[in-house]
Amino acid sequence: MTAGNRIRSIRLHDILRWWPLLLAAMGVALLSAVWTQAHTAPSYTATTTLMVVPLPQWDETFLGTDLVRDSGDATRTAPTLASQLQSEHFAAAAARDLGGDWTPESVSSAVAITSEGLTNVIDITARASNPDDATRLASGYANAAIADRWQTISAQVDKRIAAIAGDALTGAGDQGGANPAAAEQAGRLRTLAVVRDARADPTLRISATGPALRMPQMSIPVTVVLAVLGGLFVGGLAATVLEYLSAGRNRPSMVANGSSHQMMRTAEGPPLIERKRVDVKQR
Fold first, then answer.
1. Which end of the chain lies in a sparser environment, N or C, as judged by fewer CB atoms within 10 Å?
2. Please, which residues bridge with residue 55 across strands?
3. Both 33 and 64 in a single domain?
4. Does the reported pTM lie above 0.85?
């Protein structure tokens, strides 16, 4: 049997002869899994729900503002806004408001923002080591994001009010006080003033913050089974490699034995079959 055939013929019994290695791998995996689970602190999640009330596509009152506008596709409006809220900018704003040890990086890694299917609902889910921190982070991120957006929107609303008021005055002067669109412009100004005085984004508001929930942990029996299987796999892989290397080390002696046998055949003459044929002819 050549070394190549020996390597290809590794069977289960060849691996099982390394049983001490298999047991050691399973033992290490099991102890590591149990120790990790025993020393893993519990984790909690809390979710703050945002309701999106987009402006209609045909709205002209709030042109030039960052208020949420209906995209015409139910699958895009809320997801697009959710992706915008999941940014380092809003994480930094939340970290400033929360204070303490919170940083933009820690806030960003602990918060996930998703939309709920085809609805105009956005979930801000925060994860922390205790329920109070989880609830505070979820609601704090939502409030910080809405407040930060309003700072930009309020300036845009003021600019829009000034533009409409300027157009109304210009139109009244050009037409001698009779402006056909005066009533429409006045209505837009009143709507803009109401939004500005309310100091709140009418297209995005906090609906509720749910109670913090403890994240489920893997049960001990499942942990044990997975650890044993993982250790058996690693140990079996290591045993296979060792068996492969062991077969490779035997190759030189096998090659040498094969060469000696060939030399013996050459010195002794033709093979046994050829000898039999010669004897038959002589008879």
1. C
2. 69
3. no
4. no
